[in-house]
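dude i think i finally got it to work??
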Amino acid sequence: MNLYAVDLNLLVVLEALLAEAHVTRAAKLVGLSQPAMSNALSRLRELFNDPLLVRTTGGMQPTPRAEELRGPLVEALRVVRENVLSPKGFDPARSVMSFRLAAADYEQLVLLPQLMRRLAAEAPGVSLELTIPSSRLPVEDLAHGRIDAMIGVHEEMHGGLYKTPVLEDRFVCALRSGHPLERQRLTLARYVAMEHLLISPFGGMTGSVDQALAAQGLRRVVKVAVPHFALAPWVLIRSDYVLTLPERAGVAYAEHLPLKLVKPPLTIPGFKEHLYWHERTHRDPAHRWFRQLLKEVASV
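look at this
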């Protein structure tokens, strides 16, 4: 039998007829008129080349072929209802899914420790693959499922994507313990005169600090620019540079390294990061749970 030639709605009709053994009651069960149900029964008889239900003095009775079909039919429709038509829930405690998150090393540095603790406590079978974004807004990677979500500082938007703010941060200055200026107040004049270390993920020797200084007609001297947050503290503790960086990264450094954090001597605008995802995962319960988890971790 060619499945493409079969009206699968007839299988639901057959299920009702076998359950009720009565055309009118079966019609009411599936929402058809009595004539429409009689027509459907005729089509079923033609499809299976069997009368399926026959009239007897005790009412309509299934034929042996109908009885043979009953079990597989009920099971097949149960699978369709439970696994195809019913929305699946998501139980993080029992899941063994793997999620792919794209984020630069700043986001990884400040989010991963708490994220790992939450996963271990709430979803021990879930695994996480972190990757650096392939571009500032990797639309194709999100669309094709190469990543499930992305966190970035970018404000732009693209068709088919969703975004929500997840993380805000401000800037602090970091000096190594024992720095010659450690015990002195960090004035703007001292700050400008110092040699600076810059974290420049996208390259270049300038950043937000230079824009804030330029607004006051000032410039600083950047001696070293590094592309990664993971490298910066190791340069800092072995030099007399000053590093201006997001506060959450500075706190993470200072928890493990001999560094001192101080307030910058000028106003530097903070920043907000967004979580991006594609419409293909927008309604999926598992991905919704993962995005909510990221938002909760980022808000700490």
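The first strand starts at residue 53 and ends at 56.
im so relieved honestly
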